[in-house]
Design brief:
2 copies of one chain form a homodimer. Chain A is an alpha/beta fold. Chain A folds into 2 domains: 131 residues, Aspartate Aminotransferase, domain 1 (Alpha-Beta Complex), CATH 3.90.1150.10; 260 residues, Aspartate Aminotransferase, domain 2 (3-Layer(aba) Sandwich), CATH 3.40.640.10. Chain A is built from 12 helices and 13 strands. Chain A has a 7-stranded mixed beta sheet with strand order 2-8-7-6-5-3-4, with helices on both faces. In chain A, helix 2 runs antiparallel to helix 9. The longest helix of chain A has 23 residues. The first copy, chain A, is globular and about 70 Å long. About 3% of the residues of chain A have low confidence.
Chain lengths: 421, 421
Amino acid sequence: MAALSRAAAAAADASDPLASYRDRFVHSDARIYLDGNSLGRLPIATRDRLTALTAEWGERLVGGWPEWIDAPTRTGDLIAQVIGAGPGEVLVCDSTTVNLFKLVGAALDARGGGARGGAGGGRGTGGALVTDRGNFPTDRYVLEGIAAQRGLDLRLFDGEPDAATLPCGHGDVVVLSQVGYRSGALADLPALQAAARERGATLIWDLSHAAGVVPVDLREAGAELAVGCTYKYLNAGPGAPAYLYVAAGLHGELRSPIWGWFGQRDQFAMERDYDPEPDIRRYLAGTPPILGLAAVEEGVRLTAQAGIAALRAKSIRLTELLIGLHDAWLAPLGFELASPRVAQRRGSHVSLRHQRAWQITRALIERCDVVPDFRGPDSIRLGVAPLYTRHVDVWDALDRLRDLVERGEHEAVDATPGRVT
Amino acid sequence: MAALSRAAAAAADASDPLASYRDRFVHSDARIYLDGNSLGRLPIATRDRLTALTAEWGERLVGGWPEWIDAPTRTGDLIAQVIGAGPGEVLVCDSTTVNLFKLVGAALDARGGGARGGAGGGRGTGGALVTDRGNFPTDRYVLEGIAAQRGLDLRLFDGEPDAATLPCGHGDVVVLSQVGYRSGALADLPALQAAARERGATLIWDLSHAAGVVPVDLREAGAELAVGCTYKYLNAGPGAPAYLYVAAGLHGELRSPIWGWFGQRDQFAMERDYDPEPDIRRYLAGTPPILGLAAVEEGVRLTAQAGIAALRAKSIRLTELLIGLHDAWLAPLGFELASPRVAQRRGSHVSLRHQRAWQITRALIERCDVVPDFRGPDSIRLGVAPLYTRHVDVWDALDRLRDLVERGEHEAVDATPGRVT
């Protein structure tokens, strides 16, 4: 790691090959924003595209549809570029929750016979739903619901996902996040995928906290299924549509449990029985959200242009600086690093634990113009978004955080946690 | 009906109490738009709101969420005003397809015991899924899929839904559209609801082609469940989020089959098991689409301000004029009215059958600056949107249609139907 000085941080920014990307986002004030892991910034291109697309709706009306209708696959192909998928393997639609529901259902319906019962013998009919207790709530809830409805066991394991100990067997469906929302720990995707395959389990990845900042190579790892959101590092805006990935080899074999008219082959021959598209479009359900899709397209385009290798390299430099400053300034003040210290095991956000995490978070926002986020009971998450976070931002944010806690200013904040997003 | 003359049509516009609403929409050219039943026009307030909200994302970033997070219920309360529901009974979320999937699942899961097994005895455990063969494709597909997954019978009946003959019994789940997408026929909602109740079936309404143009009084009719889209007469834009209605008395009893973090009570206490909100929010799944929700809010606001009674009165005047002109001008040219002739049995679009419907539709758009839509094999749909369609628009559109067919100009169009939306 470079020497700890603000001048060194400024020098790192001056030589940053991605520096110009910062100017492609709206910055309305001097706030230091370290919550791009929750909601990314607004790209200028997105603002302009939304204006143009709204005008297009007004002008073209229903005549716009022939062009709009391909947005879920066109935008999916762009996402494919940043998660190591091929063209036609990614679809932008619905929310992460609904997409996960669809893929878990598809995997279960394909087990042991039926669509999945051809050569190779299917996936068995027994089995449980498996995830880690620390996985993101919606992932757990989706599994909990499906387990209750189908009378399946839900197996929650403790600790970070590990290939050697992944508790799954033949016919199980496992859901794992590549980067943990709380700890920022980066799972070993290829090793876990291989472990699941060896044990005969189907593994579904949640890439929400990973896509856009860590290398994801789904094809290379032989990954079969994945979902993710677009409003974090992909900068598509609050509640923008999510995506799903289904490896091309599974397109004929699996189908969504939600049968809808946009997944229907020859959709506008409306009299027919359901006969899903042969490709990724079979996972569409209702009418695609055109404004949201455009925001995804513009957001992801920036990430694809910058390139994951450069983004990852900068992300590591930024989190290394953050951890270095934590060690030097914050550890003596009662902070504890709650994210992996080894860069190769870490995503792009760093969690710090402190007994007064809630009060410190509020004081940082209200008094220091620094925006982190809080995850109960005692974590402050600091996310760096390599498209727009600078080294001096990390320096200044931690400098203000140190001052704040040294002076005890956070103690004036009501200690009762309020609503947090 | 008023005398058939363009002067009479112009006079009807001059005395139209809703005339000023036309100016609240973007009109980029002189096209006569008769496809608001498929995709409504862009309200000026929506255009401005989307610009402001995009800026708000850029400025407030994650700090916008405390305000945004209530959009699904706040916007739902506005929709409640135009469909006769109470506050807290309508939620804006997901697509119509996904919402229908949720409510069919909720109704089935509640049958005969479990959550629905308290006083009153539940809904029985047998039963089939029931709809009319002519219902909108996505409604049929959702039922077809659920029937396949749960091993239930799917019963498709022919003809328009009729209370006397509605083929359902104890424990069945029935899905009906209040206005048929093809014929424009308006179902007798209160009578059908009473028939379903008497027979012990659960009835789910699809209001997509009804909301905003015909009176819907869900509470008065004792309706339990409904879904609908917002991009037709509610003018919320291409693929805008849909809504669902669950009568307040069922909130504790039913739950969505898709368990997600936005439906969770005390959502940000993330460690807990799934414990859904006690109210309509339990039907939320993933993160709400904030831009789309704002477009719904602005669109519905116009409808609520104009008032359904006035909108319905004007809609009837417009469709009466349309049918009168059809009888006078088009019937002799081989057209046939495929919508109910009695206003009380008709929604706000009129279907005309013609052997050359596809060619006529294309020629109307390309040569006459009139936008209808085509539904295979032989229907031209002409929708009137009382917020912005004028009597002279109907007059001029049918005048051009008559001229076109009299001169045989449509015959130059390739007779092979292409992609239609």
